[in-house]
């Protein structure tokens, strides 16, 4: 069986974890600081903080933005529950907006109609590592004095008009879950684009204490000074992540080679309109986080998924739209029509894509898809 995912493992992780065990296993040691510096240098961000998850990064961003009861946050419904939870748990209402059928990202043309006097932030999600139309989003945010909180969980190494994802909003949030391109098992990172939030973020990150300021000599003792939580991950997790971040381009190039192989192999099926392939706008560079195809409808999707499992390929669908879920109905509302969110979700299949997947395995998976449609490549 070809697995859907295998976490990134390059080899040096074992030695790094052993070093952490022998020196420091609690957070904010050598490996945490090293990973943060790599993110800051690679993406030109003034401050990055590792977190216990991508969810935690979103929660910190929501807290730093001062989001609370009565506020509204605009986001797509086609996303993971974490994106909405980070705001709903603070008392905000979620305004779900339809997606574009080409990139499956929030339709930027529909955002302004969803803005009300209660709107506090826009939270775009860069699906599959393909950037949302950030020029429009940041212009709307400036016009209405809103925060932009980028959910870049899929998008480390992706760019929009040359700018790294996570660096164009007020805050950016990465995920290093085991399913992501770079992994620490469970983990993430908060990118802070305005230095005015650095101290508040560090206090929040260290359980509401000024511990960071104490160890840097800014205060003579540390104490509880504000609200916060255990957002700081274990040094063991940072040690696992470190080799991957040291090989950002190597990993990205390999994943792109696999993504491109799928695309080339399946292009004929797309040209005959049996399936639809991902669309990448010319001004976007993606990180090959997900390779998906879209079938004609949900029935065909489910039949293809079952066929692939029968032929030793574990593929899967993706998000159930949040606005149709029990929590989505409780904590949010769909603004405008759902023209594409549900229909595109029902058509989508994610194919296996991970660092150690081989080109031969990509070819085999493509062959099975052709077989399902009763055709071979010319």
Fourth-level CATH superfamily of the largest domain: Type I PLP-dependent aspartate aminotransferase-like (Major domain)
| Structural class determined from secondary elements | alpha/beta
**In the CATH hierarchy, what is the class of the largest domain?**
Alpha Beta
SSE ordering: HHEHEHEHEHEEEEEHHHHEEHHEHEH
The low-confidence runs, each spanning 5 or more residues with pLDDT under 50, are none
| Number of DSSP E strands | 13
The averaged pLDDT comes out at 96
Number of helices: 14
* Terminal-residue CA separation: 27 Å
Inertia-based shape: globular
Q: Which strand order does the major sheet show? A: 1-9-8-5-4-2-3-12
Q: What composes the largest sheet? A: 8 strands, mixed
Write the CATH architecture name of the largest domain: 3-Layer(aba) Sandwich
**Percentage of residues in strands:** 5-15%
From the alpha carbons, calculate the radius of gyration and give it in angstroms: 21 Å
**CATH topology annotation of the largest domain:** Aspartate Aminotransferase, domain 2
Total tally of structural domains: 2
| Portion in helices | 25-40%
Task: Write up what this structure looks like.
The longest helix has 24 residues, at 248-271. The protein has helices spanning 13-23, 30-43, 54-64, 81-88, 111-114, 134-144, 198-205, 211-215, 235-246, 248-271, 298-310, 326-331, 341-347, 359-372, and strands at residues 47-51, 72-76, 93-97, 119-122, 147-151, 159-160, 163-164, 171-175, 188-192, 284-285, 291-294, 332-334, 348-351. The strands form 3 sheets. Strands 1-9-8-5-4-2-3-12 form an 8-stranded mixed sheet, sandwiched between helices. By secondary structure, the protein is of the alpha/beta class. The protein folds into 2 domains: 13-247, Aspartate Aminotransferase, domain 2 (3-Layer(aba) Sandwich), CATH 3.40.640.10; 249-372, Aspartate Aminotransferase, domain 1, CATH 3.90.1150. Helices cover 39% and strands 13% of the residues.
């Amino acid at each position: 069986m070809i697995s859907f995912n295998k976490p990134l493992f390059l080899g040096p992780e074992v030695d790094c974890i052993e070093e952490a065990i022998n020196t420091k296993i609690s957070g904010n040691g050598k490996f945490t600081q090293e990973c943060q510096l790599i993110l800051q240098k690679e993406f030109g961000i003034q401050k990055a903080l590792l977190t216990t998850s991508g969810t935690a990064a979103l929660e910190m961003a929501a807290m730093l933005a001062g989001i609370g009861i009565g506020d509204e946050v605009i986001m797509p419904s086609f996303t993971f529950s974490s994106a909405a939870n980070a705001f709903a748990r603070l008392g905000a209402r979620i305004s779900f907006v339809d997606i574009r059928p080409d990139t499956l990202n929030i339709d930027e043309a529909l955002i302004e109609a969803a803005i009300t006097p209660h709107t506090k932030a826009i939270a775009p999600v860069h699906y599959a590592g393909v950037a949302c139309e950030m020029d429009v989003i940041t212009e709307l945010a400036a016009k209405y004095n809103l925060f932009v909180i980028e959910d870049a969980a899929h998008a480390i190494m992706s760019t929009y008009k040359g700018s790294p994802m996570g660096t164009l909003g007020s805050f950016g949030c990465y995920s290093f879950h085991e399913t992501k391109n770079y992994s620490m098992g469970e983990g993430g990172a908060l990118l802070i684009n305005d230095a005015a939030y650095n101290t508040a973020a560090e206090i929040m990150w260290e359980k509401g204490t000024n511990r960071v300021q104490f160890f840097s000599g800014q205060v003579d003792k540390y104490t509880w000074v504000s609200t916060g939580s255990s957002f700081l991950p274990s040094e063991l997790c940072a040690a696992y992540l470190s080799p991957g971040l040291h090989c950002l381009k190597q990993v990205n190039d390999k994943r792109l080679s696999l993504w491109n192989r799928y695309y080339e192999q399946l292009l004929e099926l797309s040209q005959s309109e049996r399936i639809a392939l991902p669309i990448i706008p010319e001004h976007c560079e993606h990180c090959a986080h997900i390779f998906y195809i879209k079938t004609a409808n949900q029935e065909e999707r489910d039949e293809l998924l079952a066929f692939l499992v029968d032929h030793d390929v574990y593929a899967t669908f993706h998000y159930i739209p949040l606005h149709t879920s029990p929590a989505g109905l409780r904590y949010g509302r769909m603004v405008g029509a759902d023209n594409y969110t549900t229909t595109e979700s029902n058509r989508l299949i994610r194919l296996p894509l991970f660092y150690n997947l081989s080109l031969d395995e990509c070819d085999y998976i493509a062959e099975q898809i052709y077989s399902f449609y009763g055709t071979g490549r010319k």
